[in-house]
Amino acid sequence: LNSIVSLNLEYQTNDYDFYGKRVLNKVTSTLENITGEILIDKPDNKSGLQKNEDYPIFNSTKNSFVYYDNKTIHNGVYNRNNFFFEVYPFTFSNINHFEYEDLSFIGIFNSADILGPIEDTLILRPDNSLGFRRQSPSEGYAVYEGRGRFFNKIDLSNQGLRGMGDLTYITAKVTSNNIYFFPDSMRTVSTNFSMQQQKAGIQFPQVQGDEHLIKWHPFEEQLFAYKGKKPFSMFDNQAKLTGDLILQPLGLVGDGLMDMEKARLRSREYAFNAIDFHSDTANVEFDVVNTTELALNANKMKVWIDFESRKGIFNKIDNSLLANLPPMMYRSYLDMFTWGIDQNELTISTPSQQQAVEMEEFYVSGMADRDTIPSGAIFYSFHMEEDSLYFVSPKVKYNLAKPNIKADSVSYIIVADAIINPKDKKVEVDAKERFIPLKGSLITANYTDRFHTIYDAKISIPSRKKYFASGTIDYVDENDSIQPILLKEIKVDEQGNTFAGGTVSQPDSFRLSPRFGFIGSFEVFAKEHFWLFNGGAQPLYSCPQLKSSNVNFKARLEPKNLYIPVPESPRNLNMISLISGSIVTVDSIHLYPGLLTDRKEHNDKNLVNAYGYMHYSNKRNRFMLGSKEKINDPDSRGNLISLTSDFCMLFSEGKVNLPINLGQINHFTTGTLTHNLSDSTLNMNVVMELKFHFNPLSLEAMANDITQKPGLLNVDLNRKIYSKYLYERLEPSEAQTNINQIRLFGAMTQIPSSMESSITFSELRMRWDPVNKSFVSNGKLGIGTIGYTQINKKVDGFIEIYKRNTGDWIIIYIEVEPDKYYVFNYARGSMQVSSHNPLFNDPINNMRTRERSVKVKAGQIPYNFVVGTRRELQRARERYYEITGKVLDESEVNQENQESQETENSTSDENINTEEQTDTKDSITTEENNENTEVPIP
Question: Which of 112, 295, 454, 626 has its CA 20 to 30 A from that of 760?
């Protein structure tokens, strides 16, 4: 036979069929491309008479081949072009009766470069294929062109090329009883998988595994070790990987769950070195030590774990890294954290500002520092009762054994409306105790206005909208002097506003300023710049004649510009009535000074009643009591009381309330009072209006008499006192109009109707006479108007007002010349007048009685006027000369006494006759008694 395509073989088994013949089994391998000859019998036995057991004989004359590319063999993976067994020429005897022992073919095995050429003998294998099994030499077999090495047994059959032993590749060793070698790869399920650590050059870690699916693609330089029933042990059992490994000449990579004693990583790709590994994208979980409770988890971060330095580093990839801390009920946006493998602690480091705020990944309602968030990791609570309480820290320690956060460099925490600056910038949060109270910290409230700073504070923070604290706040007065005050209770109201309160119980322990003491309580409201004081403020002065008290008030005070509210009827803390100014006692009739002083008697009267605010003016060096407008502009309208504490001078200005009851005589007085406390003298510079029922012709005669007197000095109506008087009596616009007229013409063009009076003294200086218990004028009398006539001249004379328990008196004595005079003497409802001028007296004498009186209601003081006797003139003159210090001529006195008696008798008779003739219905007796009642002069 020149050539046979294939030779199929069968062999006899030890089994027999129904006919007693041995059963034949087919050899599943085929000899192909065979060349040879078949010898039927011996040449000398052509007749076949001789039986020869060796024949028929087949002689193979050339090499033949056994291929393993059948589809049933791993889907034909072994290509016959390079994977075959080349059989050397052979001889088969008795080919009709093959025994399986006869199937033996020597040749050379070509394995598609899986192994080098191997000369061996094909024999019948258990699967009825032709193959072989052989033991590797001690140095093993180089496989895949030396890319790896195999040790132990090689097995060839229709099951493929297999190995039973160890395969080494780079630093890996795969042990298996069933390794399949394919032309392009190797596959097996290992009974052991290991890698040796290699530090030099390209590094590889120590790895240990057992049953794992192993795939090796040697020409791609990749060995895959897949997840098995048990994880890979790596780095000397310091980490366990439940996942896949890929071994390459450039290193070992892998994916899956990396489990360490306290941490777990999940990543699609790890890169392993001899003592460390890293991942560009991994998720991490840390457990609470010795529990299965999750301590921290975070996703999508860069991870580097070094088992030699015992350190792990976890970094953000792009933007902020979000980490959950379940035991703490906190989340954190951060840049990175480190882990000391042997420590139960994570160190969170975040030097940059978190973009999570700008990108609104982190958002809480009413976030005040959204645009100014500092650099550092953001920690915020998701505890239901803590309302996203958050703080920012560039460095934080997180305890994994006892979950606890310790943060450094915390610049501030915003709680409610307050900025809280922790002492040493340290904050601690415990999983059970929550936010650990702060000590020695700073509170600034509120975060927009920042009016108030509280230091050395003890602060408890239960939520982002609520805190409780105590601390110290500085009261800074007008001189920048600092007084620390303890705030025992600092809270947040329902609207989220900080408020606090304190108490000053010792009178000398606190001062509103160097000039004001205080005792009581105060409240600090974050949205209000100034504190709310509720208690007593005491002016501090060193005048021994005065003893101040605490004025009770409740108001916000500006320390740099103190205005203490003083009501119209001020009281001290014991609700005792206080009084200020120059004060007249009604019962004992004497004068005493006061500035927020305890009232001696309930009916004591101050001459000027000022209220509104108490203020100390450093510019004027005095206490001032009045309205703010008046205090700031003393030339404005209103009442003002002031005290120069250095010289103990008490000043009063404005409407003067003379403590007198003149019945139907209306009086209006305004001006200034100067009370010298050292000598108890009181001087007054006033404008006084007197309005009473009187004969207009008499007033006109008096006005004409005075205006016609040459040489009289003019009253200066440009004085401030007179301008202030106009502002008190008129509307501001009308007052200003009249002031302009005075500046232009020296007087008003017309007396305003509201200023019409019987007589107005536009320049009057008076003093308190403690001996006579009276207010008496000094110097000339500046008469402004009489009736409807403007006078504006100064004349000699005096006015004296007596305060008496039996009734108040007023005497007016005007001396145009020594023998020309006008006297008004009023007491107990009767006005007796006297003058040298018949034009003054006669119109009065010609009046009926009822015309000279005023009807009054029951209980009111009656009023009438009448021409008196010269006795009143005499007494008035005596008092005038007593006041002025002049000496009255004795002869003049005797003459006046005689004239007085004659005038008195004449006047009495004349009055009676006149009354009888004019009105017979009047009760003459009653009128005479009233008119002729003697008016006593002290």
Answer: 626
Please choose, from the candidates 632, 639, 667, 643, the residue with its C-alpha nearest in 3D space to the C-alpha of residue 655. 639
Number of domains in the chain: 4
List the one residue out of 844, 826, 821 whose CA is nearest residue 892.
821
Tokens, residue 105:
């073919």
In a domain, 599, yes or no: no
DSSP E strands, 19-111: 22-34, 36-39, 57-60, 64-67, 83-87, 91-93, 104-111
In degrees and rounded to multiples of 5, residue 689 shows phi and psi of -105, 135
Lookup result for tokens 């190797």: 186
HEC profile of 145-179: CCCEEEEEEEEEECCEEEEEEEEEECCEEEEEEEE
Distance CA 632, CA 862 (A): 44
Instruction: Choose among 197, 141, 152: nearest CA to 175.
Output: 152
If asked whether residues 130 and 154 sit together in one domain, one would say no
Specify the pLDDT at position 605: 93
CA distance 748 to 682: 31
Average pLDDT over residues 188-214: 97
CA–CA distance, 264 with 297 (Å, rounded to integer): 9
- Judge if 296 and 221 occupy the same domain: no
What pTM was computed for the model?
0.74
Q: Are 128 and 27 in contact (CB under 8 A)?
A: yes
Residues forming beta bridges with residue 453, ordered by sequence position: 444
CA 586/CA 352 separation, integer angstroms: 80
Q: Please check whether residue 338 is in contact with residue 313, taking contact to mean a CB–CB distance below 8 angstroms.
A: yes
| 90-144 confidence digits (pLDDT tens) | 988 877 777 778 889 999 999 999 999 999 999 999 999 999 999 999 999 999 9
Q: Specify the DSSP class assigned to residue 560.
A: G
Answer yes or no: do 188 and 314 share one domain. no
Please tell me the distance from the alpha carbon of residue 435 to that of residue 841, in angstroms, as a whole number: 97
Q: Does 733 map to a domain? A: yes
Cα 484 from chain centre = 21
62 and 202 assigned to the same domain: no
Q: Is residue 459 part of a domain?
A: no
At residue 617's C-alpha, the angle toward residues 616 and 623, to 5°, is 40
Query: Is there a contact between 759 and 686 (Cβ–Cβ < 8 Å)?
Result: no
Least reliable range by pLDDT among 332-341, 379-388, 611-620, 894-903: 894-903
What is the residue range of 399's domain?
279-411
What percent of the chain shows pLDDT beyond 70?
93
Question: Do 247 and 309 lie in a common domain?
Answer: no
Is 2 domain-assigned?
A: yes
By the 10 Å C-beta count (0-12 exposed, 13-18 middle, 19+ buried), 339 is classed as buried
Task: Annotate 249-284 with b (16+ C-beta within 10 A) or e (fewer).
Answer: eebbbbbbbbbbebbbbbbeebbbbbbbbbbbebbb
Backbone angles phi, psi at 869, to 5 degrees: -100, 175
Structure tokens at 208: 């240990």
* 258, 270 Cβ separation under 8 angstroms: yes
388, 411, 434: which is the final residue of a domain? 411
Domain identity same for 195 and 82: no
Is residue 384 domain-shared with residue 349, that is, in the same domain? yes
CB-based contact 935:830 (threshold 8 Å): yes
Residue 908 pLDDT exceeds 80: no
- Report the alpha-carbon distance of residue 619 to residue 176 in Å, rounded: 105
Distance CA 502, CA 522 (A): 5
Report the CATH number that the domain containing residue 197 is assigned in CATH: 2.60.450
Answer yes or no: are the C-beta atoms of 398 and 391 closer than 8 Å: no
Q: Which of 113, 111, 115, 96 is nearest to 165 (CA)?
A: 115
Same domain, 70 and 147: no
CA gap 682, 777 in Å, rounded: 11
Angle, helices 720-729 vs 732-745, to 10°: value is 140
